Amino acid sequence: MNQRAADTPEQVLKFAPKEKTQNRAVELDDAGQSIVAQIRTAADLAKGDCDRAMGLAHKLSRELRAAEDRTQRMIREVEHWQDRATRAEQWLQTIQQEIEEKLLARRSLPDAEEVAIRKF
Predict the structure, then answer these.
(1) pLDDT by residue (tens digit) across 37-88?
(2) What is the chain's alpha carbon radius of gyration, rounded to the nearest angstrom?
(3) What is the pTM of this model?
(4) For the chain, how far is it from start to end, CA to CA, in angstroms?
(5) DSSP state of 19
């Protein structure tokens, strides 16, 4: 008799499950198949999550590219209007100089010269 049997009362031993090696093998196979099935399910879920994340990343990438394109268009438009404003300021300065030289200079002429200019 083994040590376990000696330490355990006889009544308990009667109710102890009898070990069957064939049942154990089936249980192990079932457990293994169940674990493999759960791993496959987890892999499918992870693949689905990955696919959704990649789809979202591509969508956001396209949106970012479109926003960058709009920004570049706006920058070009701002540069265009800045150039026009600069040219307009230059023309205004030229016009102001012409007014000062041609029109305001005449006011400062002595009366005799002014009369002579009016006669022409």
Answers:
(1) 999 999 999 999 999 999 999 999 999 999 999 999 999 999 999 999 999 9
(2) 49
(3) 0.50
(4) 147
(5) P
